[in-house]
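Hi V.,

You were right to ask for the full record rather than a summary. Here it is.
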Amino acid sequence: MKGLLTKLTIAGITVFAVCLTASCSNIEKFTLTYDEVIEQSMHRFTGQSNPGVDTSTLHGKVVCGYQGWFTTPGDGSGMGWFHWGKPFAAPSDEFEPGNCSIDMWPDMSEYAEEDKVPTPFKHADGSTAYVYSSMSPGVADLHFKWMKEYGIDGAFIQRFAANTFKPFEFNNVNVVFDNCRAAANKYGRTYILMYDLTGTTAQQVDHIINDIKLLVDKMGLAQDPAYLHHRGKPLVALWGVGFNKREYDSLDVARIIRFLKEDPTYGKFSVMLGIPTYWQEEKNDALEDKNLKQVMKMADIVSPWPVGRFRTPEDTYKLTTPMWKRNVKWCRENDLDFLPVVFPGFSWFNMHGGTFNSIPRLKGDFYWKMFLAAKRSGAGMAYVAMFDETDEATGIFKCTNDPPVGESRFLTNEDLPNDHYLWLTGQAGKLIRGKIPITENQPKRK
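Predicted structure:
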């Protein structure tokens, strides 16, 4: 069928897409070139910035990872049901009962009508189930509004380096970054660029460095008031250093670190590294790389990734707390700050199969025990994985107790209020800052 040319405006960016059917129900073909994407989607922040979170340091903060990777047909991305449906890689054209990649369903009751996208899924009462597109500025606006309401300091905005090569994916990560930047400034939250190196190779380091240059030159990276600084400089995170089965090693990452810290024009940043849980023991998820610890010493913050490694509240006593204490000791000896990662539970049944609800949330008990481990380790900050992750069911944003029914199976919020994990994260921030006492059981809501 001959396509229909449609014109869409997303966050002030005009996107031309070719609709593959007259009803525009399939994936649009993205038609902008790489240079056109730069021209239309990369610009400096000129909006209003409101005061709020202290952006001078990560100390005392609880900051969430923000994926922002959900797209829908008709949103101008050309990526279809990316991260909602299958195939998992963009463009994703199937999202229907029995074929999806998420294990939790967002509670859509507070989203603007224009941000609610109908799906083939149905709730138990027969009503249509809706999702959203991260391409919409209203979505990031609502999410950062929740962060302010519940006392969450801000977010690491994920930028997958592998999604900066193709024009349509490059456009997507630029638009989402811009949406989050505007929302963080509006609600007095902070944000940090997090480069996820997953899926890249050693030969692509120059491309990553050039992309950072574009962010600085075209988008004014770290020049707006909401951007977080640490040790006197704006912070950039590089995630995926020292893990097994990567097509780059720590010395390749060292090139990026040197650029961020030493380049005469662009070298003005502090650097955080996302590393394996077992980096100190050099086992399991950690690459046996003799250079890893030396490269870590080039950074300012290190942050081990524990998602899926610890499975019960008891693990936090037997494994997490003593491990993190050893990590903190090594970091202090080497003038590094330590950022522990906490997560509320885990399940990726619809995406990969296996065990449904493989790491149960236990109504927040698992999550609270991880925060206790972070506090007891001596860390003065924490990274929540994640704010909006439904693929792996680690999201803390509002999810529903009434997910769709049918061939696909979804977790509920265990009959807790839809905002329980937002509220509990806010309480955890008080715990990290020493504003409330250490208690074995999570606080009770008044």
